[in-house]
Amino acid sequence: MEEETQTWADRFSGRVDEIVEPVSTFMQDVVFFSFNLGGADIMPIVLWLVVAGAVFTVYFGFAQVRHVRTSLRLVSGKYDQPGAPGEVTHFQALTSALSGTVGLGNIAGVAIAISIGGPGAVFWMILCGLLGMATKFAECTLGVKYREVHEDGTVSGGPMQYLRKGLAEIGRPKLGMVLAAVTPVMILLFAFFGGNVFQSNQSASILGAEAGGFFDSNAGALAYGIFFAVVVFVVLMGGIRYIGKLTSVVVPAMGIMYVAACSVIILMNFTAVPGAFATIFTEAFNPSGVAGGILGALIVGFQRAAFSNEAGIGSAPIAHAAVKTKRPATEGLVALLEPFFDTVIVCTMTALTIIVVNGPMYQEARETVAEGGAVSGTGTGILLTRDAFETALPWFTGFLVAAVILFAFSTLITWSYYGQKSWHYLFGKSRTSDLIYKLLFCFMIVIGAVMALDQVVGMTDAFLFLAALFNILGLYFLMPVIKRELNKTLEYVRRREAGQSEEEIEAAEAAEGESFGQKAGVSA
What we know:
- 76% of the residues lie in helices and 3% in strands.
- It is mainly alpha-helical.
- Strands 4-3-5 form a three-stranded mixed β-sheet, with no helix packed on it.
- Strand 3 and strand 4 (155-156) form a beta hairpin.
- Residues 514-524 have low confidence and may be disordered.
- It is a multi-pass membrane protein.
- It is found in: Cell membrane.
- Pfam families: Na_Ala_symp (PF01235).
C-alpha cells in the first residue's frame, strides 16, 4: 500500500538515497577512522586540522591576535596599492570568501553540534575558530604569492598553484606535483557536496517547514531545487568580478541582519545568557549526555567548526588570490578575519539563541542523544534553529527562511567559483569544459534538495577533511616562506605608518635589493 501512495518525486528521492548511502558510508568509514579513548571515538583526521592551527599560531607569533589592527586597516583600504595586479579589493576578496563560509554551516552546523555534542561543543568550536585564523592566514598568503595573473587580467590561484610552485621552489617538486593533483580533486568534490548539496538540502528543508503544503514534500523540494539551479546557472556566467560585487553587498547585509535577529532573541532572554555561557564552559569539560564525555564534545565541536570556517582545506586562497596587491601577506592578514567572523561571532550567536530559548526540538534532540540514540534526518540542522526562532519570535521565522536561502545562494555561487578553478586545473579551460562543469554543478543542486541530511553531512565532512589532509601537509613545508612574507609586509606597514609613500617604499626596497612586490607569473 505504501508503494501505491508514493509519488514519482518520492521514488526519485528514494533512489538518490539508495545510490548515495553506500558511498557516504564508505567515505565516512575511511576518512573518519577512529580509535576509542576514554569512551570517545577519537578521529585522527580531526586532530590533524586542530594541531595544524596550534602549530601555525605559535610559529607565526600569534598573528591572529597581534596583527588584528593591521588586518582591519587593510580591509578598510588604508594600505591599498595603486596599480597592483588583481581583480578585486581586499574587502571584496574577504566578502567573496566569507560568502562561502558564513552560511548554513553557521546556522545548521551549530544546531547539529550542540544536539550531538551538547552546549560544551560550542566552546570547542570557538577555540577551533581562533586556531583556524592562523591556518587561514598561512594558506591565503601562499595563494597570493604563487598565483598566476593572465594576460586578460584574470587570476588563478589556490593550492593547485602554491603546492606545485612552492614545493618545487624549496626542492620538493615531486611532492608538490602529487599534492597539487590530489587537493583540487577534493576541493571539487567538496564544492559539489559541501558548497552545493548541503546548501540546497537545508534551504529546501526550512522552506518546506515554513511554507508547508506542496513545499513540504519531495515534489516541492525537487521543484525548489530545479528553480534554485536555474537561478544559480544564470549567475555563474558573471565570473569572480560579478560574484565579488554581489557578495560585497549580500553577505554583510545578511550577516548583520542575522546577527541582529539573534541579538533580539538573546536580549529578550538576557537573564538566561550568563547561565548559557556557564553551561557552555562547564559542559565543555564535564559534558552530560554526550558519548565520550569531554573528548566527544571536543571532536564534535572541532568537526562542525572545520565545516563552518573551512580553514586549511585550500578553498579560501582561490578567492583571496584575486585581490589587488603586490604583497602576499597583506591578504593573509585580511583572510585571518574570516574564522573570527564566521565561527567566533556568528556560530556563537546561533548557539546562544538555541540554548537560551531551549525550544522543544532542541530538548528532544538532547534527550535522544542522552539515551544513546542518533540525531539524524531532516529533524536536525536548520530546522532546529528555526524551532528556536519560532519559539521566541513566531512572527520572525519568515526572515530566517529568507536569510537561509540567501546565505545558501551566496555560498553556492562562491563555491561554484572554487570548484570551477579546480575543474580548470584538472580538465583544462574551454567554453565546452566550462559549460559541462556549470551544468553538472547545477544538477547537484537538484539532487541535494531531495537527499537525506545525514548522508549529506557525511559526504561533505569526508571531502572537506581529505582536502585538509593534503593541503596542510604542504603548508607545513612552506611555513618559512610564509614567515618571510609576513615580515616583509609588517616592514611595509611600518614604513607606510612612518609616512612613506608607495613609490618611496618601492624605491627603498629596490635600493636594498629586496623586492617585496609579488612576481606573479604571466600566462596566456
